[in-house]
Write a structure and sequence with these properties.
Elements: E1 2-6, E2 9-14, H1 20-23, E3 37-40, E4 47-50, E5 53-61, H2 62-67, E6 69-74, E7 80-85, E8 94-97, E9 103-104, E10 107-111, E11 114-121, H3 128-138
Parallel strand pairs: 5-11
Antiparallel strand pairs: 1-2, 2-3, 4-5, 6-7, 8-11, 9-10
Length: 140
């Protein structure tokens, strides 16, 4: 079986002659031909796939973005990863977790990477006292 991969598609371009579907298409006056299957990947509600890498968007409150935290990610195989974030999370920050993506087609024992993208949640309002405390903490 040969496959070609496109964006969210896998296309099977030939079937082994020993395959049951191939044997039914052989006989007198019947020309054997390839059977083509196109398999479209189903979108996942939490992960986005790019080749062998997975992308996960994690909402994070502004306070945790500034003071470090741990991110919990439930993987596709139901493991729970606890990823420590020891940096200040800014709008362009992402965390790469090696080997937690999708299996590589050429070597299924190896995996792509997981990239955690952060959606920083800002407060919708602050009291005057909270604003003053933030000014004192951040403007000095």
């Amino acid at each position: 079986v040969e496959t070609s991969r496109g964006r969210n598609l896998a296309k099977v371009t030939s079937i082994s002659p020993c395959h049951p579907l191939a044997s039914s298409a052989q006989g007198p006056n019947i020309i054997p031909a390839d059977i083509i299957f196109i398999v479209k990947e189903k979108l996942h509600p939490h992960f986005r796939r790019e080749n062998d890498n997975l992308f996960f968007v994690n909402p994070i409150p502004l306070g945790k973005a500034l003071t470090c935290c741990t991110v919990e990610v439930k993987t596709l195989d139901d493991r729970l990863l606890n990823i420590p974030i020891n940096d200040i999370v800014h709008p362009k920050y992402f965390k790469k977790v090696p080997g937690e993506g999708m299996p590589l087609p050429e070597d299924p024992t190896k995996k792509g990477d997981l990239f955690i993208i952060f959606d920083i949640q800002f407060p919708t309002r602050l009291t005057p006292q909270q604003k003053q405390m933030l000014r004192q903490a951040l403007m000095t």
